[in-house]
Each structure stands twice: as structure tokens, then as C-alpha cells.
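pinging the channel bc i need a second pair of eyes. not urgent but kinda urgent?? the chain im working w is below, pasted from the shared doc
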Amino acid sequence: MTPLPAVEDPIPLSAVQHAVYCLRQAALIHLERLWEDNIFTAEGDVLHAVADKGGSRKARGVRRVMSLPLGSARLNLTGLADLVEFQPQPDGTERAFPVEYKRGKPKLHRADEAQLCAQALCLEEMTGQPVPEGALYYAQTKRRVTVPFDPDLRALTLAAIDDLNRSFAAQATPPPTPQRSRCRACSLLDLCRPETFARPVRHWRDQMISRQLGDP
């Protein structure tokens, strides 16, 4: 990854999930401070209220820490992990295993996985130990989904972090790139107005095509 531009404040870990879903959404939330609750965000708030209580305990030899502060100076990230399990290893060390709570069920895109991977990158920097996998717990299915932090996911996560740092350094909100299914599910749809922004671009494009074809 190329050197990151200077950004005054660290990037929130939650912004990584937003950036992979839609970089414009991430900028609207974290740069322009725009936000609108819907049923999905409200359900997420209730779910995270349990993790945000914090605390630590042991279960079957595994140390479980709720609401653990994380950070990476190298990547300019900061935030909280819902849960980190520190699993004992044969050599006497502990291996961190981050768990992120999500409403709903597993999704087709990898935004949730990237947010979890960003937590792993922070934990690796903080502990000096590899973090090969973690888990996403989905409230609708009430099951964990194990997420290996393979090279493809790490590359996707680092690319999103790079995009965020550059966008934050420039204090610039990217233009919309409408994607019907994602836009419909976005709580910022009315604030973003992707179709309104995209209409002049489509009009200009159609004009250019007509000129190239020699149409009147």
C-alpha cells in the first residue's frame, strides 16, 4: 500500500464497513456527519448495546473481552471491537479472535468481513501476533460465521482503508455510483440522492455518444 496522506483524526473502524459498501456513504457519514436512522440501524443499535457494556471474563480457558479499544498508528484506525476472544496456544501465548455482532444475516458483499479484518489488522499491530481468523455473529440466524483473513480479504480491506484516508485528507465526498440493490437498503438514500446526481452525468454521456455517431 502506498504511503497514507496526513489525516488529522484517525479513521473509525466502522467506516471501513461503510467504505466497502459505498465510499460515498462512508464520506457522508464520517465527513459530512449525515445520518438517518431506519429499522435496520435501530436494530443494530440494540444489538451493540450488549457488547458496549464492556467487561472481561474467562470461559473454558478462553479470555473474552467485550468492547475492547483498538487502534493502528500505521493504518490510522481507531475504534472498538464488540468482542475479542484470547485463545490460549500451546506455547503459552494467546491468539486474538475478534467477533463482530451484526443484525440480519450473512450478505453477498464483503463489507462486514472487511470491518472485521480491519479489527484483526489492529490486533496484529497491537499484540505482535498473527490473527488468522475471526467471526461475524448475525442476530437473525443466531449463528457465528467464521471469517478467514485470507490475502484477498486483506487486500480489499487495505484498499478501503487507503480510499478512506485519501478521501478524509482531501475532505472530499465522492460522487455517487448508483447500485440499485445497495442504494435501496441505504439509510442515507434520501440524503445522497444518487439518481439526481447521476442524471447530469448520463445526459452529458448521451450527448457525447450522439456527437460521435453524428446524430443531430
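so The chain has eight helices and seven strands. and The CA atoms of residues 58 and 106 lie 28 Å apart. — does that match what u expected or am i reading it wrong
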